[in-house]
Design a protein that fits this description.
- The protein is mainly α.
- The chain has three domains: about 200 residues, no CATH class; about 130 residues; about 70 residues, no CATH class.
- The chain contains 13 helices and three strands.
- It has a three-stranded antiparallel β-sheet, with no helix packed on it.
- The longest helix has about 70 residues.
Length: about 475
Amino acid sequence: MPRARRHVLLRVANVNPDSVNTHTDRVLYSAIGVFIVLYFVYATVGGAAFIDASSNYQHPWYRWLIGPLVAAGVVAYDRAVVGRVAISYEKLDSTDPQEFLRKPTIGLYLGRLGLAVLFAVIITEPLMLARYQGEIDSRLNEVHNQQLSRIDTTGVIATWTARLQQLKKETTADDAAVRDLTNRAAQKRHDARLLYQQAVADSEGAGVSRSAGCPRGGYCHELVQRSRGLDDQAEVLDRQAGRLLDTQRAARDARTAEQVQLAQQIGEQRQTNSEKVRADAGFGARTAAMWYLMTSDFWGVGIFYLGITLLLVALDCAAVGLKFVSRGNAYERNEARIARRREHEAALLHEREIHDARTYGAAMARVVAEGIEAAAHDEAVARESAARASAVLRTSVAVPEEVRKMAAHGGRHYRPLRNELLGPAADDAEQAARNGRHRRSLHPPVVINEDVRVLPGSPPGRHYNGE
């Protein structure tokens, strides 16, 4: 196989071509890439068949858009399983190949195999239903007829049918009552005709009396009277039948309208039921019909169904299965070496960075502590030097008498001028020892001339003239 094509198959299998160094691994992962490509085609067709079955086999055009998406999802899962190497990051400094990979667990294998079988079954089932579409349609037609018959004998149609039969019985009873009267009238007319014929025959001499004519009070006359009475009775019965029919007319009209309405409702309900039952031919109904065909005719349908299903499931699980049986091969050990070395380097670098950070922190703390100590020492030296200089200056300066007089009163100074010019008294010395250095102990000394005096706290260039 050309190198470029082999690298494409390796990329399809989601493996690193640089780590595939042996011929066995190249053949293995190239075969996995071929299975993944084949499965993409199979999953595309299966996903389109699933959408078609879900739409009650209306053959929507978008099924060929959703089919590749389903196939891409399943292939992405297979590639993730194939490209994943269970690397062990424990004992990174060990060079034992037995410690490169983590030990697999039964849950990991069952989980991956279960997901692969689940994808395979979901995608395979619509294809198998399309394969046995003719047998399934025949079974569904039989099931639908049974459902329609059961619906006609139960439910609202049965109630309406019973009511319709009751109305028909009532109409039949009314018709029977009218028919009885009309039949009785017809029978009386028939009897009247027979009697009249006998009377005519008797009047001609061919009757029972054997005498011609029909005198009053004779047998012929009696027959004629009986015939006329029967005609009158028949007429009465006809009038009774007419009156009975008039009284039944309102009830008959109501029953006729109700019968028409019930017949219309029954027809509409049967039409609706037929549409609903015929529409029950989707994925679930076809799966149930397929299961019935498998159980009722296992050697004719079931064995081939199972065989084809297992073949397609094997195609789906081929890539994952090859991954499972090839665990611990040279490719996975190479990937484990690279990943463990990289992790080991990162761990060492991280440890070094933490050590450097700790060292830097300790050094900074030491520098800060030494700086604080030096600053405190310098401040103490400055205080002591200022105190000594102030004492020396106070003892070495000759204060005139007028200055002593000016400092004799307290005035309104911030601090008594006497203390700064003449030095603290004995009790002031104890107070100064308790309070530390004075507020103005570091001011320049007082320089007194005969004409110009520089007072403490005066800025340079400004002088006080006694005049």
